[in-house]
Design a protein that fits this description.
alpha+beta
Length: 157
């Protein structure tokens, strides 16, 4: 406890806002990841692809992903993962195989699917608004207005 002794012998306390605590480094626990992360490589994106689900092989999924452009990562190319290679020499953990693709292809793929989703949303909105009737308009985000009631409730007579 820090403080001073007053003339009458009582201890005077230092205000808490003036006290400083010794900075101590605390150990912070971070749970380990289930899947190791490879060292980042410029121009490449990594992704884990399912090779088996509930113990059943999924060759259709692996085939589809390779047609999309994902390439299996060789275990010898990433010794930092410290994993034993599968029978084909690829990095595989618990039914998931590490694959890589050039980042520009990943971005192009992302843009393609975003435009598909946008087109679908526009189609749904257009289909919804097709049923619009001016006598009873549907919800529309393009316009809004506020009015103040006249007479009842506004305090005037």
């Amino acid at each position: 406890m820090s403080g001073r002794i007053s003339r009458d012998g009582a201890q005077e306390r230092t205000p808490r806002n003036l006290q400083t605590r010794e900075s101590s480094t605390r150990a912070v626990y971070v749970p380990p990841s289930s899947l190791p992360a490879p060292e980042p490589q410029p121009g490449w994106s990594f992704r884990w692809i399912a090779t088996a689900v509930l113990g059943q092989a999924t060759p259709q999924n692996v085939s589809k992903k390779t047609r999309e452009g994902w390439e299996p990562v060789r275990a010898v190319d990433h010794p930092e993962l410290m994993l034993a290679p599968d029978k084909n020499g690829n990095v595989e953990v618990g039914g998931l195989m590490l694959c890589k693709m050039p980042t520009e292809m990943v971005d192009a793929r992302k843009d393609y699917y975003e435009s598909q989703a946008k087109a679908q949303m526009e189609s749904v909105d257009n289909n919804f608004m097709r049923n619009n009737d001016p006598r009873m308009p549907l919800f529309s985000e393009t316009k809004s207005s506020t009015t103040r009631g006249v007479g009842f409730g506004n305090g005037s007579k």
